[in-house]
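Posting this for the archive.
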Amino acid sequence: MRTTMISLTSLTISAARDGLKKKSFSSRELTEAYLDAMSKARILNAYIVETPEQARAMADASDARLAKGEAGALEGIPLGIKDLFATKGVHTQAASHILDGFKPTYESTVTSNLWRDGAVMLGKLNMDEFAMGSSNETSYYGNVINPWRRRNSNAALVPGGSSGGSATAVAAHICAGATATDTGGSIRQPAAFTVTVGIKPTYGRCSRWGVVAFASSLDQAGPIARDVRDAAILLKSMASVDPKDTTSVDQPVPDYEAVIGKPIKGLRVGIPKEYRVDGTPVEIDALWDKGARWLKEQGAEIIEISLPHTKYTLPAYYIVAPAEASSNLARYDGVRYGLRVPGDDIVSMYENTRAAGFGREVQRRVMIGTYVLSAGYYDAYYVRAQKVRTLIKQDFDRAWSKVDVVLTPATPSPAFAPGEITDPVQMYLNDVFTVTVNMAGLPGISVPGGLSERGLPMGLQLIGKPFDEKTLFQVGYAIEEAAGKFEAPKWW
């Protein structure tokens, strides 16, 4: 008896992969099940563009390869693609008005790797404009809605950002997995808000070629998936060295899935005392303590460590990231592609186009970046922030002599309601536990740890040594097994 259409979308990537190999169902059937689920979940606004015909064609090609015994690592698996990744001939606008109508003539390296391994594209996922946001409220295409609700409430909640569309789509079972990007927490924070698993790999592990740039020294692609095993499967395909990206690193990409279930006995887990932040909800600290206890019960050694420059990370990040953004976004001027708003001369055309094309948050960060890079303030702000960045990395370098992995909360609170946080600085504080990882170029993973008193997801973050994503998957799986599974209530 064939698996029903409804249950097909409940399968993890690993389960769907096994079912396809056993011919329990076809990729076309799996894809149709997801397309049907997507049509019923549009209230979540997770997709900006759906690509059903392309998905069906890719699924049919996968079925042909499966029939010949030529299946790739992701053969026939339907994925959602964050709108930051260039997809040939398909809408790629970073959720911004200024890139209206842009359809690239090329494919990003990350998505090329996924298609090489047989994955199927369902569509382009919503996000904060140019990846600037922590709630998915800055998209030109409207807010993404978190599939989770507070207990005894129907009020909408944000899914986190900037990869909110990716996290919502995975949590709502309207894709099997999704690509995402992380500049200061944009994979890990939405994963924590939606009971999904998100990993930001080491800087240089995945190519940035064909990914719309926010802050070039901080941006890194990674997956959001339903569990740790699926995240491992996706990262194995996404990661590669790339001659088109000189910041990608020529390091072997391990078989991450092979470490899933490997015992963690003897591993040293660091607990940084500086992450005990004033004002953090009691339930977040309690979850952190519970995570440490789970790992200790499985044989890990818990060690308190110090990362003394942590308190300077957030202000340094919000100098470095806007500075790089102001430079990267200078190319959007209405001359070559996207939106053009006419003016009396070329300068007024630039001004009109950028004023109309960029949203308020993007404008705010471009202005901050322009300010800190200006002649009178470059040394006082940007150069000093880069020095702080070096000190942050050195803190971690010293810690690695004592521990194998660091455990922290993923976010300072569970998901909040749209419009609940209006102060930009308060919004930026959502990144307080995640930005250190980007500033130091390290890998970090968010794994579901439990539910808050009001029934909302909370995540635990693991930070690893450079290019040691394997240990993150190994320890992340141990947390996942201890925490158990959680499913978003189906209300849409």
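The two ends are 29 Å apart (CA to CA). The chain is about 35% helix and 15% strand.
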